[in-house]
From TrEMBL:
Family: Belongs to the major facilitator superfamily.
Protein name, as recorded: Major facilitator superfamily (MFS) profile domain-containing protein
Subcellular location: Endomembrane system
Keyword Membrane: yes
Keywords per UniProt: Glycoprotein, Membrane, Transmembrane, Transmembrane helix, Transport
Keyword Nucleotide-binding carried by entry: no
Molecular function in Gene Ontology: carboxylic acid transmembrane transporter activity
Length: 878
């Protein structure tokens, strides 16, 4: 015969079934709620308690914490608001919350009737409610509760009332709420998300595994259907050496047969069955069933070495970790851990299959939880997802005073980088004469650009692995040492090498400054702070040329680099003291193993072998030379190999291909490439145009450049304020590319260009973060900067080729050699100088006209940008 239904837990260890709405019912004073205890210390030797809690809305709420107890909560009916630490969520059926020891929490029912299924350990936590409450003989929940809320609880119970705790405000679901953490910590889990396993027609979704609770228990949802003709999981008896099971049926009809019984025990919707350890049983699905399975270990020192022998009738099985115990096959969502909606292919042979769930961002329906899974090889996608989610979350929102100090440090460091990168262009003719490198001096900029671009992608992942502060200090060290050695250089080759060293540092500082800002302020405030960072870049663009011009006139170009080096050292000290840092849990050796070494090597080879011929073509290499063609071919193959490696093999890729699945992100990365091309052309060729075509002095050229910088700085700050206040960014991006297409006089043009740049650099950065996962915050910033730098390199190459071709066509015959050098004008009679100036004027105009269609393309791309505001989506950044 089957197991008879009971109305109360038996009070001793045994296998039993509780009927619907039955259990030990206790009314909780001051809460308008009733506990229905399914199992407690009496049935589990003091280790676990499982209970339902039903409640109606009430204005009262209590926040409390436990010294040693764990609490796991699954919403089954209605809805409730629950806060854990500084995070608050609204839970609906299927949503889950986990509270470890030492964490303040509380919850409040919202729906007319709310019910949760909860598990706590140790099991004697139920004694607290028995002591405070009273037996309840109703059915659902008490609506008239005149008892006072408990204020003083004796030290015999593990509970502390937090009277002064102010519950946090409600916040949106994040992407982290779709995945299980890797260690013991408080967390939420959205319904129908998290890791999933499929075995013979049974779908399992764990809420808690041994990793989250130090091996004390595990909770999972099991779903299946009688539509599967063969289910090998159910066609043999099984037992568990040291684990109790509690099956709470949410829907459908579940059948269990104990070994030795001739009849099946039918467990219907709302009923609960507890199966003790070492009890052999088998199970069957009569109709579609959804249930919560709660394994409860009896012996904490259970044998973890005995391997299960699934399929043998008398095998003993260990299941503290469902992933290992059931040998289930994982199902992975398309874009990492997100909400999903899918149906399942019927497996005619009932065998376990590796499949992938279709992802459209919607929760699974009650009827279609087991229909239509997509087949796909998923081991690499899961590996990347797990590796990214295992990274240390370095978000660290700062109080106002510390934020000001940290932000001042970042701003000053960015100012120094901008001065370093833009001031040198004025000094190049002087440096070339001093180092006897008139024919090769452009390699100074090329070397810095190559190093900057090559390391852009790597910095994001390095900061994820080793921490932002550590990598930021390393970048400052590269910049300071590089500048010091540039000032000490005695040959052109030494100078080019040390400019590359400084370029490595400068690129890292720009990358990490943006990444750190995204760590220390919320998404809503990032526009404001990123705008100020952008204004520092503009300010450095104008200070640099003035500083260099003054130093060259009074002392030497070497003093410029000697001044920047100690300034970098001072910012390193400020960074060490004022920039926050979260400690890393992984050791140095483990962190080094996480670096994508192959991706770094192949990407560096690809970038270098592509950029050298692109930037040197026409000047140092003939466009049809075997050397240039060979480098382009090898570079293309290397970059293609890098893409394949990142897509298929990299465990922690620097450029995850999944970021290109979002069309808005693709459009904005394309915009970054085009913008980099145009912006670098303006930075490089406007000063040359003013000095060569108009014969302005270096100081006058710098003065005429001020309108661009002032407009860029002011508009960058204002656009950031607009984004933060209005929580919209699309209008700013459309405005910036639109205004950039209007012509005018030099000052007006430069003012318009500066306005466009001010509306460009930081708003696109905020927009990209709004459309990206928080786990890829550093990666998306690094890749955006990489595309911008690569665009700058290509734009300079195309502009240089155009300038040279126009000069070759328009210069007088005796001055055609000037097409190979744009740094100086010849000494000659006035009539010849006039002809040369006309040629430079015409060639420069051609370069500027070239930028118009490129900016026009950027403007057209804005039509594809969807402004979703700055409110975090359920699985996006906070």
């Amino acid at each position: 015969m089957g197991i008879p239904l009971s109305a109360f837990p038996p009070g001793v260890r045994s296998t039993y079934v509780l009927d619907q709405l039955e259990g030990e019912r206790i009314a909780i004073p001051g809460s308008s709620s009733v506990l229905r205890i399914i199992a407690s210390a009496k049935e589990t030797d003091g280790r676990i308690a499982v209970f339902y809690r039903a409640a109606v809305p009430t204005d009262s709420s209590i926040s409390c914490s436990h010294r040693e107890a764990y609490l796991a909560v699954v919403a089954t009916k209605g809805s409730l608001r629950i806060w854990i630490g500084d995070t608050c969520r609204d839970l609906h059926p299927g949503d889950f919350a986990f509270v470890p020891p030492g964490t303040i929490y509380g919850y409040q029912p919202l729906a007319p009737y709310t019910e949760i299924l909860a598990l706590t350990t140790p099991g004697n936590q139920m004694d607290l409610y028995r002591a405070l409450g009273e037996e309840y003989t109703g059915i659902l929940a008490t609506t008239h509760d005149d008892l006072d809320a408990p204020k003083d609880l004796t030290s015999a119970f593990d509970v502390q009332i937090e009277d002064d705790w102010q519950p946090p405000v409600l916040s949106a679901w994040l992407e982290t709420d779709n995945c299980l953490p890797r260690s013991v910590e408080a967390y939420f889990l959205r319904a129908n998300t998290g890791p999933q396993w499929m075995f013979g027609g049974v779908l399992a979704r764990p809420f808690v595994t041994a990793a989250q609770c130090n091996g004390k228990f595990s909770i999972s949802t099991l779903e299946s259907s009688s539509a599967y003709p063969e289910r090998p999981f159910f066609d043999r008896y099984m037992s568990f050496t040291s684990v109790d099971h509690c099956f709470c049926v949410m829907e459908g009809l579940f059948r269990v047969k104990l070994k030795g019984d001739s009849d099946w025990t039918v467990v219907r919707e709302g009923q609960t069955m507890v199966v003790q350890a070492r009890q052999f049983f088998t199970a069957d699905i009569a109709i579609f069933v959804r249930q919560r399975a709660v394994p409860r270990p009896v012996n904490a020192n259970s044998d973890r070495t005995k391997r299960p022998q699934l399929g043998r009738e008398n095998s003993e099985m260990w299941t503290e970790n469902p992933r290992w115990h059931l040998s289930l096959y994982p199902l992975y969502p398309a874009g990492g851990c997100k909400g999903r909606d899918g149906t399942a292919d019927k497996q005619p042979n009932g065998r376990a299959t590796s499949e992938r769930i279709r992802d459209d961002g919607n929760p699974v329906s009650q009827e279609g939880a087991l229909c239509n899974y997509k087949r796909r090889s998923v081991h690499h996608v899961d590996q990347v997802t797990r590796a990214e989610h295992a990274l240390h979350d370095q978000a660290n929102l700062l109080p106002r005073r510390q934020l000001i100090l940290a932000f001042a440090t970042l701003s000053i460091t960015m100012l120094i980088v901008a001065i370093d990168q833009n001031g040198i262009s004025v000094a190049l003719p002087t440096i070339a004469a001093d180092l006897h490198a008139e024919d090769t001096i452009s390699w100074a900029g090329t070397a810095s650009l190559l190093a900057n671009t090559t390391f852009q992608m790597l910095y994001g992942r390095l900061s994820d692995i080793f921490g932002r502060k550590t990598v930021y200090l390393a970048a400052i060290a590269f910049l300071s040492v590089g500048d010091l050695l540039c000032g000490l250089s005695r040959s052109a080759v030494m100078f080019y090498v040390f400019r590359a060293v400084a370029g490595i540092g400068g690129g890292g500082i720009m990358n990490l400054s943006m990444i750190i800002v995204s760590d220390i302020v919320t998404l809503e405030q990032r526009g404001k702070y990123q705008g100020i960072i952008g204004s520092m870049v503009g300010l450095g663009n104008v200070i640099g040329p003035f500083m260099v011009a003054a130093l060259i006139k009074r002392t030497s170009w070497r003093v410029f680099f000697w001044m920047l080096s100690p300034l970098g050292a001072l910012t390193a000290c400020s960074t060490y003291f004022y920039l926050p840092s979260k400690s890393r849990t992984a050791g140095f050796k483990e962190s080094v193993k996480q670096i994508d070494w192959m991706g770094s090597l192949v990407s560096s080879a690809g970038v270098i072998l592509l950029l050298i011929p692109i930037t040197g073509g026409g000047a140092y290499f003939s466009w049809n030379s075997p050397m240039l063609i060979s480098m382009l071919a090898v570079g293309f193959v290397a970059f293609l190999s890098f893409v394949v490696w990142e897509w298929k093999l990299a465990r922690l890729p620097m450029m995850p291909v999944e970021i290109f699945s979002n069309p808005v992100v693709v459009v904005m990365l394309a915009q970054s490439f085009l913008f980099g091309s145009v912006y670098q052309a303006y930075l490089y060729y406007v000063p040359l145009y003013l000095q060569n075509a108009h014969q302005f002095s270096v100081m006058t050229s710098a003065l005429l450049y001020i309108p661009l910088v002032i407009a860029q700085s002011v508009i960058s700050t204002l656009s950031g304020q607009y984004i933060s206040r209005r929580k919209r960014y699309r209008e700013v991006i459309v405005f910036r590319f639109g205004i950039w297409t209007f012509p005018g006089a030099i000052v007006v043009i430069l003012t318009l260009v500066g306005t466009g740049v001010g509306c460009t650099v930081q708003p696109t950065l905020v927009a990209l973060q709004a459309h990206s996962s928080k786990y890829r915050r550093a990666v998306i910033i690094s890749n955006r900067n990489f595309f911008r730098s690569a665009g700058g390199a290509c734009g300079l190459a195309v502009s240089a080729a155009l300038l040279q071709s126009r000069l070759q066509a328009t210069l007088p015959q005796e001055y055609k050699y000037l097409s190979q050098s744009t740094y100086a004008l010849p000494d000659s009679e006035v009539r010849h100088v006039s002809a040369v100036l006309d040629a430079y004027m015409s060639a420069s105009h051609s370069v500027f006209i070239l930028q118009v269609p490129m900016i026009g393309l950027c403007f057209l791309c804005t039509a594809f940008i969807r402004d979703r505001g700055l409110e975090p989506l359920e699985d996006h950044d906070r």
